[in-house]
Amino acid sequence: MYRTNIKLMSAFNFLIGFNLFWPIAIIYFSRISGSFTLGASILGIIMLSSTVFELPTGILSDFVGRKYTIVLGTWARVFAFVFYATGFSYWFLVIGAILEGLSRAFYSGNNDAFLYDTLADENMESEFHEFQGKVNSTEQLAMGISAILGGVIASFSFPLALWLSVIPQIGMLYISYRFINPRLKKAVNTNVFSHIKEATMLFIKNKKLRLLSLASIISFSISELKWGFTSAFIATVWPVWAIGIPQTISSFGASLSFFFSGKLIKKFKEINILLFDNIYGKVISLVALGFPSIISPILMSSTSLLFGVGHVAKNTLMQKEFASNQRATMASLNSFAGSLGYAGMSLVLGGLADRMGPSRALFILTLISLPVIYIYWIIFKDDRKLY
Question: Over the stretch 277-326, which tens digit does the pLDDT of each residue have?
Fold first, then answer.
């Protein structure tokens, strides 16, 4: 059973990543809406919607099962892309954003829990980091392929890039119905409010989980937003047809990083990787954005070589701290806060970009994210005391 689910999840993630639209999304949103502020607000609405639906979908996953949660999320994603592609007005984009946020909420927490529980059925939980790295590498590989294609197609026709992006979503829908629900899962024998209270108390009592969660929230609020907005910066130093090239380099680098993450984590340990990843990434971003030039996009792409292994390292540490019967709910609580932060910061970033330009706006956002390094340093010191 686990082999079937892992093969299907690899294909599913590939189709998630094969998105001709995302590399030029902020440019498309800004053209339809008329400004960077309104364009970035669509990114914010995606995350605000995800925030609203985060807890209900996480609880639904723990109550009714991982497979059915994926199916519902994929239906929402298909309709979201149809509304984006239609693109008659800003409000069509808003509806698409709400539906995409709903889809992300269904996937958030649930998909990692699906993989973890699938492995737990075979007593293979210790291999989670290995399998998650390989499964996620396919998404980054697809992002690399689609990024350069999306940029080239968009240089001829933005609508064409949007409608072609609907096709992979239909493929995801087909795959979602073929997943097999994991068997090994404690029954949830409590009401919804008690379930949330129990999950919240686990965060409060566990210092390491609190710190990991805080670092994750800040990183997601800022780094994920920067990724979505980077094409607006690239467009100031490179032509539109070439916008996808740095993102292709980034995605291929991230794919390799994900693929070899298991081996790297075994050799260097999770917290060491997270520290190095954050220090290197933020230094490179400050240099590239502080002194914008034609080489800045390439410099920023180099951070992708640590992105995959850093993502897997963080998720592995958090999954180890989560309770088995609260796994999706606890992940959703963490994502809930991250999505809320993303929604708020998207308005800040859009306003800064309209006033100062994309490079200065992204530079300021990078400065705001620097405390993440200190948080991981605290975890690093605490772990050393245990040995």
Answer: 999 999 999 999 999 999 999 999 999 999 989 988 998 898 888 876 66
pLDDT at 148: 83
Give the side-chain half-sphere CA count within 13 A for 166. 14
At residue 300's C-alpha, the angle toward residues 296 and 305, to 5°, is 145
Helix H, strand E, coil C: the string for 50-64 is: HHHHHHHHHHHHHHH
> How far is the C-alpha of 241 from the C-alpha of 150, rounded, in Å?
9
Cβ neighbours of residue 114 closer than 8 Å, sequence gap 6 or more: 5, 9, 66, 67, 70, 179, 182
Would you call 88 helix, strand, or coil by DSSP? coil
Residue 279 lies in a domain: yes
- Please identify every stretch of the chain with a pLDDT value under 70, giving residue numbers as ranges: 1-2, 184-193, 195, 324-326, 328, 386-387
Provide the residue range defining the domain that includes 101: 2-178+191-385
Residue 295 phi, psi (nearest 5): -90, -10
Angle, helix 270-290 to helix 358-368, in steps of 10 degrees = 150
**Cβ-contact 100, 172 below 8 angstroms:** no
pTM: 0.71
Count Cβ atoms below 10 Å from residue 302 Cβ, excluding itself.
16
Q: What is the pLDDT of residue 197?
A: 74
The sign one gets for the Cα dihedral 88, 158, 176, 262 is negative
CB 71 within 8 A of CB 64: no
What domain count does the chain have?
A: 1
The CATH number assigned to the domain holding 378 equals 1.20.1250.20
Residue type, 32: I
147 domain residue, yes or no: yes
pLDDT at 248: 85
Contacts of 168 (CB under 8 A, 6+ apart): 15, 16, 18, 19
